[in-house]
Amino acid sequence: MAWGGVLAAPWLPMPKADVRRMLALAHLRRGELLYDLGCGDGRILAAAARSGALAVGFEVSLLPYLLAWGRILGAGQWRQAKVRYRNFFNQSLSDAAVVTTFLTPRAMTRLGPKLATELRAGARVVSYAFPISGWQPSAVSKPTPTSIAIYRYDVGGATNKPAENS
Hints:
By secondary structure, the protein is α/β, with parallel strands linked by helices. It has one domain: Vaccinia Virus protein VP39 (Rossmann fold), CATH 3.40.50. It has helices spanning 2-7, 16-26, 43-50, 62-74, 105-118; strands spanning 33-37, 54-58, 81-84, 98-101, 124-128, 139-141, 150-154. The longest helix is centred in the last third of the chain and has 14 residues, at 105-118. The protein is globular and about 40 Å long. The termini are far apart.
């Protein structure tokens, strides 16, 4: 688990209400592909699969990876949800309709250019707690002063435009 904390974020379970808030803000639709970067115990994957989406999580810490598979298998969602024991920084995210994250500010700074380069126009990025440096959110969910902020970014907007191919 230490490697995951150093690479992108330590594992901190997210409250179920915040998982629902993230997916609502993402406007996730049936059949869309969601990538959860640093998926932890698979809460977002399971909720996305229940809504009819296809969900793939990337996790580099063994215990959360195993917990995520347990959650998916226990709920019978192995057809709609998968977990990859991989570093998401080394994976292409180009086919995602939605990307969800709960990473450290340092990891978010590193992730921004990767998302801008790989995601197609119209993709949505939803980040729990920390914004993407240099990007303008299209929406922010913070229903109460004590709520954790959730940021939504629409790729292809004026400040969130993917890099053009040379």
